[in-house]
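Weekly sync, protein design subgroup
Attendees: M.S., D.O., the rotation student, P.L. (late)

Item 1: inverse folding check
M.S. brought a backbone from last month's batch and wanted to see whether the design step gives back something sensible before we order anything. D.O. pointed out we never logged the input encoding, so this time it goes straight into the notes. Structure tokens as presented (203 positions):
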């Protein structure tokens, strides 16, 4: 439900701001590339939807769904599921590009270097573009979407790691006394600990 609210608010914000975008060719020039910009580009590129990881994730989840439900999806159902997710993410990306071009590009907005400050600024951009009433719906929607994204990525990397161990470390998988559920939980702990450690070391 919150995802639907967030989608509608994004659509309203884009409609409100699209007329203020400067579409001149000069605004499409590449910005100067420095170390910070290159790191940002790498992070964004890795986060953008592209067919290899999305297809792999979708295949793993289809197998899990078939195992839990006892019914394997048909090829047309799997393709439709993939296309809906891919196109939705692509549309979100275009909307955020338009919002960035209309609100922040060329303006006086200086983004905070902290994640909390940056999130607060993003929410405030919505309230300025639409109305003040959108603050709490946007806040709740953003929180729920980020929380679900973390769970999705964690589940994805855990299942990737498990299947990689099964394929590449066959002897270890045969000799270990842990079943699939126990291995899943162990990998969740290891991935979570590694992610938190990286955040503390590099942020």
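Designed sequence read out in the meeting:
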């Amino acid at each position: 439900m919150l995802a639907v609210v967030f989608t509608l608010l994004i659509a309203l914000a884009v409609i409100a701001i699209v007329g203020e975008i400067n579409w001149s060719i000069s605004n499409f020039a590449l910005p100067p590339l420095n170390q910070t910009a290159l790191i940002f580009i790498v992070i964004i590129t890795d986060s953008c939807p592209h067919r290899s990881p999305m297809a792999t994730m979708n295949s793993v989840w289809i197998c899990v769904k078939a195992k839990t439900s006892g019914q394997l999806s048909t090829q047309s159902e799997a393709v439709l599921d993939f296309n809906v997710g891919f196109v939705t993410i692509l549309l979100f990306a275009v909307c955020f590009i338009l919002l960035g071009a209309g609100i922040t590009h060329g303006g006086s907005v200086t983004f905070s270097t902290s994640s909390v400050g940056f999130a607060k600024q993003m929410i405030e951009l919505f309230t300025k573009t639409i109305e003040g009433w959108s603050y709490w719906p946007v806040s709740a929607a953003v929180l729920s979407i980020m929380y679900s994204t973390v769970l999705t990525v964690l589940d994805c990397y855990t299942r990737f790691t498990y299947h990689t161990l099964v394929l590449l470390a066959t002897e270890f998988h045969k000799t270990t006394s842990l079943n699939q559920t126990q291995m899943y939980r162990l990998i969740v702990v290891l991935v979570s600990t590694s992610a938190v450690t990286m955040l503390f070391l590099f942020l």
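Discussion: The mean pLDDT is 75. Residues 135-168 form the longest helix (34 residues).
Action: P.L. to compare against the previous round before Friday.
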